[in-house]
Specification:
It is a single chain. About 10% of the residues are buried. The protein is an all-alpha fold. It has five helices and no strands. The mean pLDDT is about 90. The two termini are about 35 Å apart.
Length: about 160
């Protein structure tokens, strides 16, 4: 006779992990779309905009909900959440100086006059120093990046703990 052992943890704890898994899958879809970018901004078909809205929901708003939904986290998930935010804090402290100072160091290492700059450096320099972006676009991209990094770090730490 087989016994059915029901899980004792509430459904909301499992739903938290399911939503995180779905968010990670949509992060991959969003990354592929960002790399391929098949349509011009003015020529996007309606179905593409609908898919984009769903991807944005699972890349931005669901992670935001998961970030603040303490009632859905058990003790382990709460500790994983805290560890994820510690990793994010370290990244937030280290990455901006690297992005600002790194290109200058590379510039002077490549001769200082710019004649030895490779194409990737010229493209980075143009995008980072020469482009004018509206503040709301910067805020939106930073927010979306933070949400996606939170999901990625959380899932990576979860995977590492399971090994």
């Amino acid at each position: 006779m087989t016994q059915h052992t029901a899980r004792k943890d509430p459904l909301r704890y499992r739903v938290y992990y399911w939503l995180m898994d779905i968010c990670l899958a949509f992060a991959a879809i969003g990354l592929i779309d960002w790399i391929i970018d098949p349509y011009e901004a003015t020529e996007r078909p309606l179905w593409y905009l609908v898919v984009g809205a769903v991807v944005l929901t699972f890349n931005g708003f669901v992670p935001l909900f998961l970030m603040v939904a303490r009632f859905m986290r058990d003790d382990y998930t709460e500790s994983l959440w805290k560890r994820s935010l510690v990793v994010m804090a370290y990244g937030s402290a280290v990455v901006p100086p690297v992005l600002v100072l790194g290109p200058w160091v590379l510039f002077f290492l490549l001769g200082g006059d710019g004649s030895l700059r490779p194409d990737f450096y010229i493209a980075f320099e143009d995008a980072f120093y020469s482009k004018t972006l509206q503040p709301y676009i910067v805020v939106a991209k930073v927010w979306l990046t933070f949400m996606l990094l939170f999901v990625g770090v959380f899932q990576f730490l979860r995977w590492r703990d399971s090994r």
